[in-house]
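Posting for a labmate who doesn't have an account.
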Amino acid sequence: MLRRKHLEDLTKRLHIRWQAGQLSPPSPYPAAAACDALSQVVRLLSALEILELFLGPTNFTISLQTVHTIEQIIQGCQFSQLQSCSLGADWGRGLQFYTTILTSFLCSLPNLRHLILSDHHAALNLPSEALPYLTTFRGSPDTAASLLPGRPVQCLSLIGHDFDVNRDNLPRMTYTSKPLKSLDLSSMSARPLLLRNVSTHLPTIKSLRVNLALRHTLHHAFSGISILAGLSAVLCAFNQLSVLDLSPTGKGGVGKADSLDELALCTEWWVACPSLRRIIFPFQSEWVFDANTPTLWSLVQNQK
């Protein structure tokens, strides 16, 4: 791209994913050279609308640099048309953390709608006028708690561990300028306690995607998929929940899928949460509410 200048104004999307077979630092010099070349290219693409940078193990490289490897790439970039941005690298304790370079970069994106920060685990100190159109965010609970207040984020996806969501950061996620509609907890193993806390602070969400921690069974008296019966006590607090997606949940703890058991759960959950209209179980079976059928719930056919 450095040799083809005409591509600078034509390039609208850039996706770079650096993946390694094992979590070990790459050789410092080739990694530094690659990042330097990438930095030169990215700075030229001022017309970008979508940017994805995942630099894998490069942040493990032994270096005298005092900034995160992602910041080495984005420092000084100007993307006035950027609408979607995903940034990150492999993370480990003791690695170089982000600095104010990331903050300055985000403040320079007036039209950003979608943001992913996969390895940022602290609060972001952004001025209130930054990112005025942000509608979706994926990142750590502490980052979300600092970013969401005052912004129109309606779709939230959290990463990390369920104990990272606590009594300090969860309430602050409710201070968006528009109500949150969708919450994705598929990247963490969520215990019933987290779901109860979510139902307390975010009762108006319409879509919930969750990876249940089945080692903490919701109903010890049952086996197989019936252990999910205990979800009723949580779902009753969601007064607008329309979609419940349990597909990220591991199948090992729920046994073989049984349509009669699933139908019974759909009925029980609907009694607890009458707004439910679509349920996806761990085995990917999908049920939809149908008032015209005697059972009220129908299994979607021709599923992959």
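Reply:
Got it, the structure tokens are right above this. The chain has two domains: 1-134, 140-304.
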